[in-house]
Amino acid sequence: MALKLRNDKSTALPREGRQGEFIEKSRWGVELAVSRWHLLMAGLLLTAAGAFFLLEKFQAEGEQPAEQVHMYGWYAAVYLLLTLLGAALCLLEFRIPHLARRAFGWILLALAPLGTFYAVDLINGTRILTFPLRKAFANYLCYLMVFAAIYALCRRVWITIFAGGAAFLTFGIANYFVVQFRGQPILPWDLQSVGTAMAVSGGYEYTPTQQMALAAMAFLCFTVFSSKTGPQGRGTATRRFRMGERLTAVCISIGLFFLLFPANILSSMGISVWAWNQKVSSELTGIVAGFFANVQFVMVEKPEGYSTQAVKALGEELSEKESPQMLGSPEKLPTIIAIMNESMTDFSRVGGMSFTPDNLPFIHSLEASGQIVWGTAYSSVYGGNTCNSEYEFLTGNTTAFLPVSSKPYQQYIDHEQAGLPSILKSYGYRCLAVHPGRRSAWQRDEAYPYLGFDEFIDASVFDVPRRYEHGLTSDRSCYDQVIYEYENRGDSPLFLFNVTIQNHGGYEDEEYETTVQLTDYPGKFPQAEQYLSLTKKSDTALEFLLDYFARQPDPVVVVFFGDHWPNLEPGFVQELLGTDDDAVNIETMMRKYQVPFFIWANYPLEGEEIESISLNYLSGLLLRAAGLEGTAYTKFLEELRQTLPVITAVGMIDKEGEVYKNEGGTPYDSLLNEYAMLQYNHAFEDEGRQDRLFEVESR
C-alpha cells in the first residue's frame, strides 16, 4: 500500500460525487491531502479537542478522588492519541475500490451501534463489563433500530454514523447529568418535560467527565474514518440497488421496532425495569435498553375486571358507609391553605444524623405541641417531578396505577377532572393556585383549569416584592403573596394552593451562606449543608406565616407537606441511610420518599400523630380538619388508609408496617383493584364516568 503526498494541484482523476477530491478506482493506497479544506477540518478538530480537554481539566480540578489521580496520565495519553489520530485522518485520503468501499460501509454501519452503546454506557458508568451476551445484544438491537432508520432516510454511511452517534451521545451525556441532579435516569415521559427542565437547569453545575471526553473524541475519529473509507456519492450503484438498500434498512428498523415493543423481546433477553429504583435498574440493563424497556408502560391499562357496572356496584356499597369523623369544627367555612414545599424533608426522622443548629426548630415545636395533625408522608417521586406530588394530593389518585414515571399533568389531564378544588367549589370556595415559577412548567397553566382552579398566580404576576434565596423566589415571598391573597379574598371563602420553589436544586452556590452544619461531618457534604441552611429559612418563613394566621379572627386551616427529597451527594445519602445505593432493599428505599406533613388551624383540632400516610390521602384528611364532608371517593380512600396507609409509585406499606414492592403480589390485591377501578373511572372514563362518586352530595 503506497503513501503519496499531493496538494491542490494534483492531476489525479476526480472522485465521483465530491468536487476537488480525488481517487484512483483500481488501486489501494493512502494519500496525504494538504488542501485548504483538509487543513481546515484538521484545525477545527484540534481546536475542539483542546477546548474540551481544558474544560474538563479545569472544571474537574480538585474533584477527583485521590485514588484516581494516578489514572489521569493514562487518560491524557489516550485522549492525545485519539486527537492526533482524528487530525491525521482529516489529512489522509484512502484509495479503495468502489465495491470494497460498499462492503466496508456495511461493516462500519454494523459496528457503529456497538461502539455507540459502549460509549454511552461508559459515560454513565453502567456495569457493562458484567453484561451477559444476550443483554449486550439487546442493547445493540436498540441502537441498530435507530441507525437503520437514519440510513433509510439518507443512505450515506458517514451521515448515518454522525447523526446516530451524535444523538445517542447527547442523550447519554444528558442522562448522566439528570442522574447527578435528580437521582433518576431519563425516562420516556421526561421528553415532554424538556421545557420545564430547561427552566430550572441554571442552578446546577455541569462538570464534564473524562469518559465524556474520550467518547466524544472516539466518535469524531470514527466519523472521519467512515467519511474517508465508506462509499462516496452514488458511485456505480443502480437506482434499483439504492432502493433495495433503503428498503432493507426500513425493514430492519421496522422489524426491530415490533420486536422491541409490541413483542417485548427485551424482557426475554434479560432487560427488566425496577420501577422502585430506576437508577440501579438502568445500570444493570444498559442506558438505552432501560429507556426503551420503559416504553411498554406508556399505555394505561384497565384494571382487572373493570367495567362501568362494576364501578356502579362499588359505588352502591360506598353510599352505605358512614362518613369519617371530623378533626375540626370551625364556626364557619374556613380559609383553606395548602402549602407544598419544594424538596422539603426532615432528615432527623430518617437517619441518625444531627445538625448544628436544628434546621427545623419551628416545625419540631409544632409537632411537640400536640395541637396539630402531623406525621410522616410518603411521596412517589425522588429528586424531582414535583407535578406528580401535586397530582396525588389534589385528586386523591395514586401514580402507582399509572405507567412508570408518568407525568399526569402532561399526559392525562386534558379534560375536567374532579378533585379537591372541585369539591371545595361545591361549597362556594374560590380556588387559587400560587407558584413563583413559569406558568408553563409541568404544563400547570393547562392542568390547573381542568382541575378546577379559578386563577393561577405565577412569578410574572406576583403582587408583592420577590426576594431570592440562591437565585430562586424565597418561601417568605411566597407567604407574603399568600397573605396578600387572604387579605383581598372578597366575600367567597378561599382555597389557596401554594407550591414553593426556594429549596429547588442545585445546591452548589459557593456564595450562599451556610448556617447549618452536619454535627459529625462538618464541611464534608457542602450540598447537604447548603440544603439544610435553605430549609432553616423555610422553617423561619413558615413561623412567620402561621403567626400571622394565629392572630386572625376568622378560621384558617393550613396543610403543609414536602413534595420529595432533594438530590444530594451520594455519600451523604449513604451515611444517612447506613447503606450503599446499590445494596438498597425496598424497606430502605422507601425511607428516601419520606416527607414531613402537618395540618394546623387557628381553631381547635384533634391533635394526632400519623405514623405513615401517602400524599393521595392528604386532601381527605384536610377536608376533615376543615369540618367538610367529602365524596364517596374520599370516603373510600379514608377507609382504605386504615389498611394501607401508604400507596406510592415505589411501594406500599400496610398498617402493620410491612413493605411491598408494586410489581409483586400483596395480601391486599383485591382492595387495591377496587381502588384502581375507581381511579380509572375517575381519570380516564368518558361516557361511563360515575360522577356522583367524585362529587359532594347535595346539601
Structural class: alpha/beta
Which sequence of strands runs across the widest sheet? 8-7-11-4-13-14-6-15
Q: Low-confidence runs (pLDDT<50, min 5 residues)?
A: 1-25
Largest sheet: 8 strands, mixed
CATH topology of the largest domain: Alkaline Phosphatase, subunit A
The total count of strands amounts to: 18
Query: From the alpha-carbon coordinates, what is the Rg to the nearest angstrom?
Result: 30 Å
Question: How many individual domains?
Answer: 2
Kindly report how far apart the N and C termini lie: 94 Å
The CATH architecture of the largest domain would be: 3-Layer(aba) Sandwich
Q: Work out the strand percent.
A: 5-15%
Figure out the total of helices.
Answer: 25
* Whole-number mean pLDDT: 86
Fraction in helix: 40-55%
Outline type: globular
CATH superfamily (homologous) name of the largest domain:
Alkaline Phosphatase, subunit A
Q: Given this structure, which CATH class of the largest domain is correct?
A: Alpha Beta
